[in-house]
Design a protein that fits this description.
Elements lengths: L6 E5 L4 H12 L3 E6 L2 H11 L2 E4 L5 H14 L2 E6 L10 E2 L2 E2 L2 H26 L11 E6 L3 H4 L5 H21 L4 E8 L12 H8 L11 H13 L7 E4 L9
Parallel strand pairs: 1-2, 1-4, 2-3, 4-7, 7-8, 8-9
Antiparallel strand pairs: 5-6
Helix pairs in contact: 1-2, 1-8, 3-4, 4-6
């Protein structure tokens, strides 16, 4: 897909994987809408890359509709990358009692419902695009996690939300194929995002030894590079791609 001259939306674009993806898309010539619940972070990234910031919850219909409308006014909306997510840890049966149900629902709402919300609104707009030379009209990239396959103790809500994104990928790709809209999911492993900076250096070092090769934490720009690779290769569709250095998470 030709990205230059098209518009793109990146949810969770104010930091981490989303910010790196927004920057990669902008460097490739896209007009990028940065959607993030943190207005100041969204604005900072948008200013840096020459994009447009939209503040809002990815699971909110109004905010997502505004992002899609804004992007479509800039240029045909051809790329959407859903990076927004949260990962609170809690045990199903912990010392303080059962897993808080509201917390479980919140994780599902942000990670899974939010991804679907962006997908459905963006896909509806993409189906009206003029097809490119190869018949392609759009690309939707979702973000899962290796926790979808190897969720650790304390990750019940997070793993369930990311497993739902993996399960969503193929039926969405099958449905949207007739419009020339692809759906691909990336399942990253251990990436050095701002969340990692809250850990001690010793904890980060221990985590960096878990991937087999390269034996280090992934870099957000490597996620952004994969987004561009997926855009460039039209045969990538209906699949979840692990980006993890052959990491397989242990139970805890």
């Amino acid at each position: 897909m030709e990205i230059s001259g098209a518009s793109a939306i990146v949810s969770g674009g104010g930091s981490g994987l989303g910010a790196a993806t927004a920057e990669a898309l902008a460097q490739a010539g896209a007009k990028v809408v940065v959607l993030d619940i943190d207005a100041s972070k969204a604005e900072a990234v948008a200013t840096r890359i020459g994009g447009v910031a939209i503040a809002g919850d990815v699971a909110d219909e109004v905010a997502v509709a505004a992002a899609v409308e804004t992007a479509s006014l800039l240029a045909p909306l051809r790329v959407v990358v859903a990076c927004a997510g949260i990962a609170p840890a809690a045990r199903i049966a912990g010392r303080g009692g059962p897993h808080d149900l509201a917390l479980f629902e919140r994780v599902i709402r942000v990670n899974l419902v939010g991804t679907f919300n962006l997908m459905r609104v963006a896909a509806s707009r993409m189906t009206t695009n003029e097809p490119l030379a190869d018949g392609e009209r759009g690309l939707i990239i979702c973000t899962a996690s290796v926790a979808a396959y190897e969720g650790q103790v304390g990750q019940a809500a997070y793993a369930a939300s990311k497993g739902g994104i993996v399960a969503l990928t193929l039926p969405a790709a099958r449905e949207l194929a007739r419009f020339g809209v692809r759906v691909v999911t990336i399942a990253p492993g251990l990436i050095h995002t701002p969340l990692m900076d809250t850990l001690t250096p010793e904890a980060r070092e221990a985590l960096s030894r878990q991937p087999l090769f390269p034996q280090r934490l992934g870099r957000p720009e490597e996620f952004g590079a994969l987004v561009l690779t997926i855009a460039a290769n039209p045969l990538l569709n209906g699949e979840t791609i692990r980006l993890d250095g052959a990491l397989r998470l242990p139970p805890a």
